Amino acid sequence: MKKQTTGIHHITAIVGHPQENIDFYAGVLGLRLVKKTINFDDPETYHLYFGDGSGNPGSIITFFPWANAYQGRIGDGQVGVTTYVVPAGALDFWKNRLLKFEIEYMEAKRFGETYLQFDDPHGLHLEIVERGDGALDPWTFGGISKDVAIKGFGGATLYSVHPEETAATLVNVMGLEIVGTEGDYTRFKATAEIGNIIDVKMTTGVRGTMGVGTVHHIAWRANDAKDHREWQNYAMNQGQHVTEIKDRNYFDAIYFRESGEILFEIATDPPGFAHDETYEIMGNQLMLPEQYEHLRDRLEKSLIPIEVRPLD
């Protein structure tokens, strides 16, 4: 039985100072900090989750912020560009907002769409595109109304060590459809309304190196625990070296590094981000998994103080 993911669940990246990270993604881009927790594999480090107001899959970008850590290099074997989608007609608002915060951007065209391309403070490549698909996000922050607010991911551009093999994995393992080729890029599409467009750069360049300003992995959606177990067996049967299922509290996860050396995760949509704190207050408190609750006092003292704040 062939399986098909509906699209991106989340994207996880490595960045620098956590307050700079919050100021950009909440203060400039207007995303909601939906969860403030720790890296379960490195509890001395935050794990910060930003997304739409409800923390829906397809809108979540997560960060491991390492202040004063070494800079990475974006290149082959990584997600090269993360794309955000905004409502039709919102691009002029975002041009003005980027100018207001002195963020340099370029305009580019790809597959008949116009993109605003820019970097976050730590070097991650981002872009914004208009599309009609996807619900408006009622979450408002920093003077951004729902009529122009980011709806979630438009998708991502993958830089692969072996682009043809990555393309084959997207089709034969993840179930995406090829929709076209333009210049160096082949475009793939999943079935969700957001987080559904993947462009693969079909030429190679410099190898990426992990560090600040690079994406650690891209996660794809599984419907539930049953579907997730099926994905684990299916990916194994397709020749992928898949990990055991890991409990990440807000979703279950499996991982494999596809042949183009990009780390793929498959994550469950449930239970989501409101199961351990209510929708109204999620993101306000440091949330710890049970195995680290006994370290709360120490962690609250050692972690860098952070806050979500509107920017002038």
TrEMBL record:
Signal peptide: none
Domain VOC, chain residue ranges per copy: 7-131, 152-269
Organism superkingdom: Bacteria
GO molecular function terms listed in the Swiss-Prot or TrEMBL record: dioxygenase activity
Pfam families named among the record's database cross-references: Glyoxalase (PF00903)
Keywords noted in UniProt: Dioxygenase, Oxidoreductase
Gene3D superfamilies for the chain: 2,3-Dihydroxybiphenyl 1,2-Dioxygenase, domain 1
SUPFAM superfamilies for this protein: Glyoxalase/Bleomycin resistance protein/Dihydroxybiphenyl dioxygenase (SSF54593)
Name of the protein in its database record: Ring-cleaving dioxygenase
Species in which this protein is naturally found: Ureibacillus sinduriensis BLB-1 = JCM 15800
